[in-house]
Write a structure and sequence with these properties.
globular; alpha+beta; seven-stranded mixed β-sheet; 12 strands; single chain; five-stranded antiparallel β-sheet
């Protein structure tokens, strides 16, 4: 009887262990997501606002650049000057050679290349008068501007601008150097040659009038 009880107890323990093992093996274990899969599930799609171009990036390069001045109608000595006049920083500038030639001056330009700069000269002549404009260009910067008439300095602001291959100088240059009159407006500029000065009558003329 004792042996039978021990045998039955042992059989019961084995059966219980088998039953427990069967339950655990029959149950399919839940799949544990890998780190890569978990990352894919948690990462949200990128925002469309981040990928869309911002107004600054889509703007054209010229949007914030400095624009060239727009030429306005220019007449000199009674004839139209094709180059036109320009306003730059509230200063009226006129094309040097074209305006001088329209006023009856002959103009010759010279450019000499040096090691680190370019020296440019414009010589204008009319009758017995001679006007010389000299300046240097280095690193796209104009320096050492001088203008003279018959060896005397002309009291004009030292400013020269090059636009479309033309040299522009202050309108006051033509007033001081050539005695021209400048009538400036927002849409048109007229440069007039100086009126001839009345010469005093001679003694013979005075006697004839009497």
């Amino acid at each position: 009887m004792k042996r039978n009880k021990k045998a039955m107890l042992a059989a019961g323990l084995i059966a219980g262990a088998a039953a427990m093992t069967g339950c655990t093996t029959a149950t399919t274990p839940a799949a544990t997501p890998t780190p890569e899969a978990a990352q894919k599930e948690t990462v949200q799609p990128e925002s469309t606002q981040e990928t869309a171009a911002s107004p600054e990036s889509s703007a054209s390069p010229e949007a914030g650049g400095e624009e060239s001045p727009v030429p306005i109608r220019l007449t000199a000595g009674g004839q139209s000057v094709e180059a036109g006049a320009i306003y730059e920083q509230d200063m009226l500038l006129l094309p040097l050679v074209e305006t001088a030639e329209a006023l009856g001056w002959t103009a010759q330009s010279e450019s000499v290349e040096e090691e680190t700069q370019t020296r440019r000269t414009v010589v204008m002549e009319r009758e017995e008068s001679r006007i010389t404009v000299e300046w240097t260009v280095s690193d796209n910067t104009t320096r050492q501007i001088t203008w003279q008439r018959d060896g005397l300095l002309i009291p004009v602001d030292a400013k020269i601008t090059t636009l479309d291959g033309r040299v522009y100088v202050p309108a006051a240059f033509f007033e001081e150097a050539m005695g021209a009159g400048v009538d400036a407006g927002e849409e048109a500029v007229d440069v007039a040659t100086p009126e001839p000065k009345d010469t005093p009558p001679t003694q013979e003329q005075e006697g004839a009038e009497e």
